[in-house]
Amino acid sequence: MNILQIEDALLAPCMDAVIAVTERYQFLELHRGARVFTAYREIDHVMYLGFHDDLTERSLTQLRERDFQLLAAREGTRREHRLLLLTLKEIGYAASYGEGYYKASRSLARHLRNLGWPLGTLAQLLNTPRINREDPTG
Prior knowledge:
Blueprint: H1 3-30, E1 35-41, E2 46-52, H2 57-65, E3 69-75, H3 78-90, E4 101-103, H4 106-114, H5 122-126
Antiparallel strand pairs: 1-2, 1-3, 2-4
């Protein structure tokens, strides 16, 4: 295989990556309040991995009304959120009772950290003995 064939083979994946990054920045430029986030409910040890077009005080109040506390948030896109949920499904994590809701576990937190998802103080919460430390996928 010569250099020209290698360059040709790499051109399409590189262009796909450039297009994806450009789309992300264009989306975030238009939707300055768009956030991906992690919320946690202590009573049943459920994490909510979410996306919101505009994470305002009203949407935070809605989370608090369901006893969730926001742990961390950052700029993000709906596509990023959707890809995270698909990735979690592929590696064996099933949503507990709705899209984006998962039983909290150290192994899931480790995967989320490796995937660059905002976690905030989740690691400290998972060190408490009340939370199942085992992997819920098994």
